[in-house]
Amino acid sequence: MVIETPKLKGKRRRAVSADLKDRRRSEILQAALQLLAQQPYDAITMSSVATAAGVAKGTLYLYFPTREALFLSLLDEHYAAWFDALDARLRRPGLTAPGWADWITRELAARPLFLRLVALLHGVLEQNVPLPETLAFKRRLAQRVERSGIALERALQLPGGAGSRLLLWLQAIVPGLAQMAAPAAPLRAAVEADAELAGLLIDFATEMRALLAAVVHGLQGKTETLS
Amino acid sequence: MVIETPKLKGKRRRAVSADLKDRRRSEILQAALQLLAQQPYDAITMSSVATAAGVAKGTLYLYFPTREALFLSLLDEHYAAWFDALDARLRRPGLTAPGWADWITRELAARPLFLRLVALLHGVLEQNVPLPETLAFKRRLAQRVERSGIALERALQLPGGAGSRLLLWLQAIVPGLAQMAAPAAPLRAAVEADAELAGLLIDFATEMRALLAAVVHGLQGKTETLS
DNA sequence: GAGTTTCAATGACCATGGGTCATTTATAAC
DNA sequence: GTTATAAATGACCCATGGTCATTGAAACTC
């Protein structure tokens, strides 16, 4: 009954070498990123990612064990880029505490997709990823936190351990503040139109800078509260 | 073929009055809370909530428009209780900044389910709730933030506006810190067993107290960063 | 370069769970 | 007792994450 589907011959290019596989993996991540820029995370289906990447749904599962693992990989890449930028900044001399708070704020504000991904990390992405994958992710993260933490201590003359502590805190603060400052589009519109809700409307950059400055100030002073 | 199901007669008690409806609603929320104490949010299905509450699945949708709305209501209740406790504490005199940070920390640590719910707020609960519901929730929240904020300013002698600002920041900080300190059970076990990941293991109370102290300190000093 | 092997790619299919709605029937109203 | 109302039900719908038997591109063999 059903007419034989054309079976699109010649369209199946197979990634055989490790290099080709890496490339295909990147293509998939790229497609997912593109979709994330256009719609909320929940609205992105695996089918849509597959279509956007020009592969079949099943192919996605050749490269990522679950949907969450796919987006965790995406976050992983962004984390790496973020730490690269941070390290580069810390290598340049003449950094003050408020200057750093300012730099961090601007840098984060310029990476809205990174912020959205980070916000999903605990509640969503870690929920359905095979444990080894999650651990590998956390291990990479821990390494970079420690390395950059040391550089940060040097740059801001913080007591030992305060650098990584500060970066850790940053991870706790940033997603919350970002979500509060930038709720989903329809919600944002409604909140803006409601006078009673004015108190909940905050500006990410303003709050981030103030909060960070206070925290750094606290860390520079009382070292006894640390480990 | 299929044997006629007994149709459990006499078991269907109908909530007719507003009072009875409220009670049934509470029963459902109570059941959901119980389940949340036993398993992660993702693992809780509407069917399981229905069974636990002793009603049919369809009944849940008589009281809550979506799954997320149900849990948002649960969070709403906990928020109210939390602010009640906060207000009561602020009414008692003789509160210092570190004393307050300490009280907040202990109070939060004693409400793990509240922490888990708060952590779900932005990423999950707000995603699939009818806009009016979400707005009502936010309005209640904004009111209590403002009211308690004023009391807080008085108690800690903070500059005007700093009280609600502080409570707002608290909402950004708390869930992140809580998630970082208390990941899902299997993950936690694995992290604890891995020396490389020691840096990511933090104690909620310790970090919360230190962070809060720093923030309050910052707010008491520089008032110029505030609106 | 014909034959053989390998395994990336596919998409029909499955299972699950959120959400719906025609039907049932407890309760109120008379 | 009869009728009207609407709370409760659960079979059903359907979207979506994930699987796997099958296909066929590329590598390998002789």
Summarize the structure in short.
The structure is a homodimer of 227-residue chains. Chain A has 227 residues and is mostly helical.
Write the layout of secondary structure elements.
2 copies of one chain form a homodimer.
Chain A: H1 18-38, H2 46-53, H3 57-63, H4 67-91, H5 97-109, H6 112-120, H7 131-156, H8 162-181, H9 185-192, H10 204-221
The structure holds a DNA duplex (30 and 30 nucleotides).
Structure description:
- The structure is a homodimer of 227-residue chains.
- Chain A is mainly α and 227 residues long.
- Chain A folds into 2 domains: 64 residues, Homeodomain-like (Arc Repressor Mutant, subunit A, Orthogonal Bundle); 156 residues, Orthogonal Bundle (Tetracycline Repressor, domain 2).
- Chain A contains 10 helices and no strands.
- In chain A, α2 crosses α3 and α5 runs antiparallel to α10.
- The relative contact order of chain A is 0.10.
- The N terminus and C terminus of chain A are likely disordered.
- Chain A binds a DNA duplex (30 and 30 nucleotides) through α3.
